[in-house]
Design brief:
Blueprint: H1 9-24, E1 28-29, H2 41-50, E2 52-55, H3 61-77, E3 103-106, E4 140-145, H4 152-158, H5 161-171, E5 176-185, E6 193-196, E7 215-220, E8 230-232, H6 244-250, E9 261-262, E10 270-274, E11 279-281, E12 290-298, H7 300-303, E13 307-310, E14 313-316, H8 319-339, H9 362-369
Parallel strand pairs: 1-2
Antiparallel strand pairs: 2-10, 3-4, 4-5, 5-12, 6-11, 7-10, 7-12, 8-9, 8-11, 13-14
Helix pairs in contact: 4-8
């Protein structure tokens, strides 16, 4: 794959066709529930068929403004480049108070993980890497880990009653958390994320089905286009684990996999995406800016008693571990209720009777929210 592959006529046609196919799918619309509180069956059917659904206009204008404003503040106070301790104005950068770095950088228009062992080696093939502009910085901000401890607005969105009701519908009332991140795609500079499926743990286990590795919500701060956004292969969440290297080789070495579609979204939209769906994002040579808050949930049965390593330490996801990490959900629900007191409060079944111990206040910020990502439930 050449460095000019992204900008050639073939890519232009690929984008045009992908957008057309995306608009033809019947998997977008408002977040609707039936009178009994169950999720509209048309949404569930489309999600099961394609592996993703675009909920349009989930976030109100005021909440969207809060999220955008706080994101802009965080970006202004982020380290000015990789390994920096100060922001662009020379002030101490945000994030130094946490025990593990949360701002992650990569070279412009690069693929920092494809074809490597990173992320448990799930990114099998390196993406095309266009030449960056001559005035591009050496590094650009790529992802922000654990934003619930950085942005109160993200914590409140995490406690959104309708989104949590979706999680309950799909994963059961005792659903468990996963992990959170914000993906940054600067126009003309944003790095790619190589084709992959998110799950790495359960592919060979008996009982694998389309929901084994959970799902992500993808909240769009500024919208998403074919040039800046995630691409998915519809229906691939049902096909087990794919040999991505073989797929690229069969496609004459091109990372433009046939049949894929982009997520085309407006600001405030939230995408429901199955973590087993084959997906990627190309290097962002477009003029479109994207920032996406990813947060996901598992079936409790998928994570319970899983043995793994996290931050180079052996971990067992027993009931106590899961309950401790899930406190973030309870705290987020209370944080949202405090900001939106007239909104219906979601009742998270595993924490009924523990509301007083999980109030959102400064003690919770320090004792529960700070460094919470060291206890993520990754599969």
């Amino acid at each position: 794959m050449s460095n000019t592959d992204q900008g050639n006529d073939a890519m232009t046609e690929y984008v045009r066709e992908g957008e057309r196919r995306a608009r033809e799918l019947d998997n977008r619309g408002p977040l609707n529930f039936n009178s009994d509180g169950s999720l509209d069956s048309k949404i569930l059917d489309a999600y099961s068929r394609y592996g993703f659904y675009v909920f349009e206009g989930v976030v109100t204008d005021q909440e969207l403004k809060d999220l955008q404003t706080e994101l802009e503040h965080m970006l202004e106070r982020a380290p000015c480049t990789k390994d920096a301790l100060v922001d662009a104005k020379g002030r101490p950068a945000m994030g130094s108070e946490f025990s593990h770095p949360v701002f992650n950088f990569a070279k412009p228009l690069s693929d920092p993980v494809g074809g490597t062992s990173k992320n448990n080696g799930r990114h099998h093939v390196k993406m095309s890497e266009p030449n960056p502009p001559s005035d591009a910085p050496e590094y650009v901000l790529y992802t922000i880990s654990a934003p619930l401890q950085l942005m109160d607005s993200c914590l409140r969105l995490y406690g959104h009653p309708q989104l949590l009701s979706v999680a309950e519908q799909i994963n059961g009332a005792d659903f468990a958390p996963f992990g959170e991140a914000i993906f940054i795609k600067q126009p003309g500079l944003g790095p790619s994320v190589a084709w992959h499926q998110d799950g790495t743990t359960h592919w060979d286990k008996t009982g694998l089905d389309e929901g084994t590795h959970g799902f992500n919500f993808m909240f769009q701060f500024y919208g998403s286009s074919a040039g800046s956004g995630v691409w998915l292969l519809p229906g691939s969440h049902k096909g087990g684990r794919y040999n991505i290297k073989a797929m690229v080789e069969a496609n004459n070495g091109s990372d433009r996999l046939p049949g894929a579609v982009p997520l085309v979204c407006e600001p405030g939209d939230v995408v429901l995406a199955n973590r087993q769906t084959l997906h990627c994002s190309f290097a962002n040579t477009s003029p479109d800016r994207r920032a996406t808050f990813n947060f996901g949930f598992h079936r409790r049965a998928s994570v319970l008693n899983v043995k793994t390593h996290f931050f180079d330490k052996p971990i067992v996801y027993d009931e106590a571990y899961i309950h401790d990490r899930a406190r973030l959900i309870a705290v987020a629900i209370d944080a949202r209720q405090q900001r939106y007191p007239h909104e219906s409060r979601y009742i998270y079944q595993p924490f009924i009777g523990e509301e007083d111990a999980n109030r959102w206040n400064e003690a919770a910020r320090e004792d529960i929210v700070k460094d919470y990502h060291l206890k993520d439930l990754r599969l």
